[in-house]
Amino acid sequence: MTAPTTVAPPRRLHVRTWGCQMNVYDSERMTELLAPLGYAPVDTPDAADMVLLNTCHIRERATEKVFSDLGRLRDIKNARAADGQKMLIAVAGCVAQAEGAEIAARAPWVDLVVGPQSYHRLPEMVARAHRAAGVQIDTDFPAETKFDTLPEARGKQGAIAFLTVQEGCDKFCSFCVVPYTRGAEASRPPAAVLAEARRLVAAGAREIALLGQNVNAYHGDGWDLARLLRALAEIPGLARLRYATSHPRDFQGPSGEALIAAHGDLPALMPYLHLPVQAGSDRVLRAMNRGHTADDFRRVVDKLRVARPDIALTSDFIVGHPGESDADFQATMRLVEETGFAMAYSFTYSQRPGTPAAALPGQVPQADRDARLQALQALLRRQQDAFNADCVGREAEVLVIGTGRDPGQLSARSPWLQAVHFQGSPSLIGQVVRVRLVTALTNSLTATLCATLEQEELSAA
């Protein structure tokens, strides 16, 4: 007589992600890694068999939020244990890399701590955690790349997909922890990138955003980013390309010139670029160890606007870096006024332990940092509002990514990465359609549907 087959009950996985799109990408891949172990995603931690916090170490406040979340998770874990149920808690990402020992000391109820270069070993760590008590920590920078061991299969894909092509940083900006948490710059081979891009397109992606800490430093097998973009643009069914985040220093030299030219040559490369400048004062840029001047940034912007006149530029700014004077801050304000940004992220300087800037003299009082940030953000908001208002009345091709909040409403992304909402059929999701932009709101645009590109082609025929 054959013994009855027992089927293990499904396990539930809750993932919370902080920080950049690279962390979003990493969270998706970790979810895929855990799927063969029976873990399926759930929206809340309360009934999860495993909770994974994928963390960011850029801001001090973000780090403390992780420990605050861990305190709440302890209570959930204890309640489940009282009912005879086991729950694993894992901390991944840059906080895990930088503060693995601190996590083990402050939150001993955490079961796994895994750095961003080691998460391909997560299934093995989970198995060990089920067999033995005590925290499992893996924050090595292994010799083999994690991408060589990640599963190829990707599930059904939305209209927009993210694809990491470069990791790490060799720049060592004075304020930044990335070189210490993500390691040295490394680029994936172009053949691997192209293969993953084809799988994403086959699964439904129409737009791919290439990711990297310094994505325009890409140098896989001798290819630069421009060559990679040109090869990706030839994939059938791939309508749009973007990349982030870039460094002004890597726009200098032949590879930078080739990338600028690609913005003018490739219709699939969207007229949008996120290029963090951080400050407009050369004195502050030197203190930051940025490796470029304000005029270097201006020259790159000028060349980009010659190559692609409709390009939307966004950036990052840090105010109150140690030693920043009122005159230095005014230089930043002038750079913003001269450049004109579609949008920008701005922050007050935050001391990160172990970074050179944390020990510099001339720490700017927090009240001064806050006042400068308010002035900068007011200027950036005016520029964002003006950019969006200038789009009103234009026709634009937008990628429909899903339904909106209101009945019959669709949500889309413009070529300039704005959120666009209009009335239309859900059958348009995943298509590029032409709309007329009607109203500029605070963080989005409303539009009316003109026609799908397929309809226009049939009319022309």
Topology, element by element:
Elements: E1 11-17, H1 21-34, E2 39-41, E3 50-55, H2 60-82, E4 88-93, H3 94-106, E5 112-114, H4 122-131, E6 136-138, E7 160-164, E8 166-167, H5 178-181, E9 186-187, H6 190-202, E10 207-211, H7 225-232, E11 240-244, H8 254-265, E12 272-274, H9 282-288, H10 294-307, E13 312-319, H11 326-339, E14 343-348, H12 366-391, E15 395-403, E16 409-413, E17 419-423, E18 432-440, E19 444-452, H13 453-460
Parallel strand pairs: 1-2, 1-3, 3-4, 4-5, 5-6, 7-10, 10-11, 12-13, 13-14, 17-19
Antiparallel strand pairs: 8-9, 15-16, 15-18, 16-17, 18-19
Please describe what this structure looks like:
The chain has 461 residues and is of the alpha/beta class. The chain has helices at 21-34, 60-82, 94-106, 122-131, 178-181, 190-202, 225-232, 254-265, 282-288, 294-307, 326-339, 366-391, 453-460; strands at 11-17, 39-41, 50-55, 88-93, 112-114, 136-138, 160-164, 166-167, 186-187, 207-211, 240-244, 272-274, 312-319, 343-348, 395-403, 409-413, 419-423, 432-440, 444-452. Strands 2-1-3-4-5-6 form a six-stranded parallel beta sheet, sandwiched between helices. β18 and β19 (444-452) form a beta hairpin. The chain starts with 10 loop residues before the first strand and ends with a helix.
